[in-house]
Amino acid sequence: MTEISAVELAEFQRGMTDAQKMMFQTQFNGVRKDRTTGLILSVLFGTAGIDRFYVGDTGIGLLKLFTAGLCGILYIADWFSIGNKVDDYNRLKAQEIAAALRITEGS
């Protein structure tokens, strides 16, 4: 997958009022993760699973922590996949925020 685009963010905000759009942007900017930070964490601390903890993948993070990156296999594999994991995390958070704002609109 690619990094979340402005068009995709606009799609999440479709049908929202201006106030909701502002709340969405504020909340999303507060929780979104950076691909470069994910890669740096993966290269420097990947054997300890810090990169997976960064994107909320606690189970694999613990596995990497206790097995030294699954003897280096997951450590190296995550160098190439952590960007997609960060993108997936950001999309999930955008969906959750948009859904929560739409629910509060109906209340």
Rg, alpha carbons: 16 Å
> What is the string of SSEs from the N terminus onward?
HHHHHH
Mean pLDDT: 94
| Number of structural domains | 1
Give the tally of β-strands.
0
Largest sheet: none
Structural class, please? Answer: mainly alpha
User: How much beta, percentage-wise?
Assistant: under 5%
Between the first and last Cα atoms, what is the distance in angstroms?
Answer: 35 Å
DSSP summary: helix tally: 6
Shape: elongated
The helix content is over 70%
Strand and helix map with partners:
Layout: H1 6-12, H2 18-31, H3 35-45, H4 50-54, H5 58-71, H6 73-106
Helix pairs in contact: 2-6, 3-6, 5-6
What brief labels describe this structure?
79% helix, 107 residues, mainly alpha
Description of the structure:
This protein has 107 residues and is mostly helical. The chain has one domain (6-11, 18-106). Helix content is 79%, strand content 0%. The protein contains six helices and no strands. The protein is elongated and about 50 Å long.
Short note summarizing the structure:
The protein has six helices and no strands.
